Amino acid sequence: MSAIVCRDLVRIFSAEGVEVQALQGLTLDVQPGELTAIVGASGSGKSTLLNILSGLDVPTAGAASVEGHDLLAMKEKDRIDYRRHTVGFVWQQTGRNLVPYLSATENIALTLAVAGVPRKERAPRAAELLDMLDIGELGDRLPAQLSGGQQQRVAIGVALANRPKVLLADEPTGELDEVNSALVLETMREVNAALGVTVLIVTHDPGISGHVRRVVQIRDGRTSTETLRRTALSASGEEQHVAEEFAVLDRVGRMQLPADYVRALALQDRVRLDLAADHVEVFRSDAPPRGAAVPGAAPPGAALEEGRPSLRRDRRRAAAAPPGDERPSDARPGDEPPADARPDEEGRA
Question: CA–CA separation, 88 vs 161, rounded Å?
Fold first, then answer.
């Protein structure tokens, strides 16, 4: 069973008579233990998706579930329990992740207290998480005494305190420099590997692809492409990372062509599709149909015939040969007949 499932997800916001469709039929599957990044331009629907998956928002239509929890059917009490135990969340702004007057250890302990964890278990759990995040020596510091990268690692500890099955992160590196961004992303990769928790990251960070196996791009409220990373052996036997980009096909057969393909071929409004033996070809609407005659072009098959003059000569020779002058059974097509059997200029043998 998938950890995260979205089917034809729609979210419409209305304000002063104006409707904005943030999600327009989005479909997504994330497997348990997978480390996935969601990327896309501002306004593409990334944060809306994450708010729905975290239980902070409700979709207008479609279906969404996380670890078996139906996000459309849950009541408010169920949502509170869901946010405490099933999902952990890391915000972009550290002010939303940490209480400023509590130390790193106390911030994690507070989350455990709200969830009803006994007092004697809170400090050991906080120390365990801080050690795993490589900031164990910073447990007594307030957020203001930590760097941006350290604050986000404490925030990851807070999100993991109650052992959630899914960790959601909304632009966790948005306010960090390149070095700290890499540290935070690498921390999430290590958490995913060590705990087996499913991790879904929404980010603009172009360096995300180096830290996750799967990158899903959202465009206009739908998933458009996916980039999958894998390891392979080169011709010299060395291990190398290979990234492959795929278009996403939803259950009714819709997909989005990459924007640079559309621009390069000036595609718009309508396109022509042709089905080949093992692929589908996409043409501009003004391209001639497959097999149609093109003005000024040679008729179909002309190039093929021009490339086979010996076949025409063989046919003439076979027609001109007298009865009983068959070619030996071991002769091959194209073998020249004896000199005295060759036709003269008028075609006589």
Answer: 8
Please give the domain boundaries of the chain with CATH numbers for all domains. 4-247 (3.40.50.300), 258-296 (no CATH)
Residue 328 structure tokens: 């030996």
Cα–Cα nearest to 198, from 23, 28, 24, 71: 28
Beta-carbon contacts of residue 228 (< 8 Å; ≥ 6 apart): 213, 214, 243, 244, 246
Q: Under a CB-based contact definition with an 8 Å cutoff, are residues 165 and 84 in contact?
A: no
Q: Which of 162, 156, 172, 153 is nearest to 110 (CA)?
A: 162
The least confident of 7-11, 28-32, 210-214, 297-301 is 297-301
pLDDT in tens, 228-253: 777 666 666 666 556 677 777 777 77
Q: How far is 235 from 248, CA to CA, in rounded Å?
A: 30
Task: Say if residues 198 and 32 touch (Cβ distance below 8 Å).
Answer: yes
Residue 175 CA to residue 94 CA, distance in Å, equals 9
CB atoms inside a 10 Å sphere around CB 191: 22
Integer-rounded Cα radius of gyration of the chain: 32
Strand partners, 26: 9
pTM of the predicted protein model: 0.74
List pLDDT tens digits, range 261-307. 888 888 888 888 888 888 888 888 888 777 665 555 555 445 444 44
CA distance 210 to 173: 14
Phi, psi of 254 (to 5 degrees): -85, 145
